[in-house]
Task: inverse folding
């Protein structure tokens, strides 16, 4: 599952690494690029909870086979795109199918690992996303420079097909081949704790989407890096994301083992994350490329806090029976915010108003923590008590 999430992020991130070259050939503006990002994000938003519910019932063997085959084809066909409409259609297909990535990861962890190893399993399987973001510049840049940007999409799309061969062999294991039973839980859509989880996850992760999709544009426009030079630095911020997954997962588990409740452990982690998120607002004032990249590294390191902590909080509240749906809601809500903010950020980049864009990205984790802290208490709508006043 770590490998397939790595592949999924290479497929989705290739356009972010290659966008300066694609813009020169196709004439796409920053705002149009933002709408292409939004097309992926809206489809990803819808796909996550839908795939989550499907995987909770169908199982990971069949569900992941359908999803990976679909997104691999969509990714490869990016090599035939030539403008806003064609890119938008293909990004929609890619985004919807890739919505199975993290629901499949969490569902697999719950089916194959005992409770004492699940936090590490979540960190490992989810870390493929950040690993894919690290590897993308090293993989797609040489291909694009040697054979053109279109060939990069054909090759990365083909990686998913190869993964499916291994997946079907691996799924001979009974714990993967099984169809899971959806356990009864107190999960209620109107439960304020659902909104608390979504707020912490989605708003806390806004800097992730901002840096992944906009860093290439900023480095090209402000630091005047070439496509080749971008390939040498764009791996640095996702490395912070990768480190963040493992550090915050270890730190939260460590607090819980010492007797701290999961909710309190998450509160402490989120509070630290809020303060570490604020320096991102000052990034446009940094004129040194190494220091600027260090700030992006820190911002993405903090993002792992809100993702791992959000999942830990939600699974502690709602149990394992809805693991796929929980993962889908988290990733889907993040994608929804990315879809909303990407065209806005792209527009500000067209206007060279970088300061305000970075300020908004830095403020989102603060808002996410505030909403989580306010809503994290007992459910307002408990099962069978929806009409009972608090």
Result:
């Amino acid at each position: 599952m770590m490998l397939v999430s790595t592949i999924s992020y290479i497929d989705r991130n290739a356009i972010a690494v290659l966008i300066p070259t694609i813009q020169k050939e196709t004439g796409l503006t920053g705002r149009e690029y933002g709408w292409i990002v939004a097309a992926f994000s809206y489809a990803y938003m819808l796909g996550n909870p839908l795939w989550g519910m499907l995987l909770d019932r169908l199982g990971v063997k069949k569900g992941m086979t359908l999803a990976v085959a679909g997104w691999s084809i969509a990714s490869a066909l990016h090599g035939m795109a030539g403008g806003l409409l064609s890119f938008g259609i293909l990004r929609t297909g890619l985004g919807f199918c890739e919505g199975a990535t993290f629901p499949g990861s969490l569902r697999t962890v719950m089916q194959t690992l005992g409770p004492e190893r699940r936090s590490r399993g979540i960190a490992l399987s989810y870390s493929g996303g950040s690993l894919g973001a690290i590897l993308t510049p090293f993989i797609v840049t040489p291909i694009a420079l040697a054979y053109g940007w279109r060939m990069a999409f054909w090759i990365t799309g083909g990686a998913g097909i190869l993964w499916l061969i291994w997946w079907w062999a691996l799924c001979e294991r009974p714990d993967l081949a099984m169809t899971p039973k959806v356990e009864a839980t107190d999960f209620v859509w109107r439960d304020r704790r659902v909104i608390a989880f979504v707020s912490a996850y989605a708003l806390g992760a806004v800097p992730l989407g901002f840096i992944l999709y906009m860093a290439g544009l900023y480095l090209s426009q402000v630091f005047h890096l070439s496509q080749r030079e971008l390939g040498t630095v764009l791996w640095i911020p996702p490395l912070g994301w990768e480190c963040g997954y493992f550090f915050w997962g270890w730190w939260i588990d460590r607090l819980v083992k010492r007797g701290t409740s999961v909710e309190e452990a998450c509160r402490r982690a989120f509070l630290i994350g809020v303060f570490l998120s604020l320096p991102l607002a000052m990034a446009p004032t940094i004129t040194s490329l190494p220091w600027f990249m260090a700030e992006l590294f820190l911002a993405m390191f903090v993002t792992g806090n809100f993702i791992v902590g959000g999942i830990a909080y939600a699974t502690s509240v709602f149990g394992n029976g809805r693991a796929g749906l929980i993962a889908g809601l988290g990733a889907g809500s993040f994608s929804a915010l990315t879809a909303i903010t990407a065209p806005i950020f792209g527009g500000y980049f067209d206007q060279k108003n970088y300061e305000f864009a970075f300020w908004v990205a830095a403020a989102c984790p603060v808002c996410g923590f505030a909403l989580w802290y306010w809503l994290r208490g007992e459910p307002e709508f408990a099962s069978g008590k929806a009409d009972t006043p608090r």
Notes: The CA atoms of residues 17 and 383 lie 46 Å apart.
